[in-house]
Amino acid sequence: MLELDFQKSGGLIPAIAQDHQSGEVLMLAYISPESWAETLKSGYATYFSRSRNKLWKKGESSGHLQKIHAILVDCDLDTVIFKVEQAGPGACHTGHRSCFYREVDGETLREVEKPVFDAEKVYQVKK
Questions:
Q1: How many whole angstroms separate alpha carbon 49 and alpha carbon 106?
Q2: CB-CB contact of 17 with 82 (8 Å)
Q3: 56-90: per-residue pLDDT in tens?
C-alpha cells in the first residue's frame, strides 16, 4: 500500500473531496492510516471523525456516499484530493451541496448557496 506521511501532522492528514466531473470542492475532512486503507479497499471515501474519534464512511447515515474515481497526492505525501462521485444531493451536513457555501463579505459571512436537501430529515436532527 502507498505510504502517506501521517506522522508529520500527528496522525491525521487533510483530504479534500472534489466532484470528479465539475471540479467543485465539496468538503475537507481528515484521514488516518486506517481510514486511508479502508478508502483504498472499499472504493468509497472513509474519513476519521475528530469529533466522534472513529472512522467515518461518508454517507453511512445519510446515504450520500462518495465513490472514489481518482486520488491525487501532494508532493509531501501529506494531503490528498479524493475525486468523487457524490451520491445524493449534497455533501454537507447542513443540507448544502458543498461545505463551502459561505463567502467572506467584509467582516461577515454571506451565504452564496442555498441548501439542496433538508438536513433535519436526512440526519433526523432534533432541535
A1: 32
A2: yes
A3: 999 998 999 999 999 999 999 999 999 999 999 99
Grid coordinates of 90: 449534497
Cα 32 to Cα 103: distance, rounded to the nearest angstrom: 29
The answer to whether 117 and 86 have CB atoms below 8 angstroms apart is no
The answer to whether 45 and 70 have CB atoms below 8 angstroms apart is no
> Rounded CA gap, 56 and 106, in Å?
35
pLDDT in tens, 62-71: 999 999 999 9
Is-contact 45 17, C-beta < 8 A?
A: yes
Neighbouring C-beta atoms of residue 110, cutoff 10 Å = 10
Burial of 78 (0-12, 13-18, 19+ CB in 10 A): middle
Least confident among 20-24, 72-76, 84-88, 119-123: 119-123
Query: What's the start-to-end Cα distance of the chain, in Å?
Result: 43
* Block residue for cell numbers 450520500: 64
Identify the residue whose cell numbers are 508529520: 8
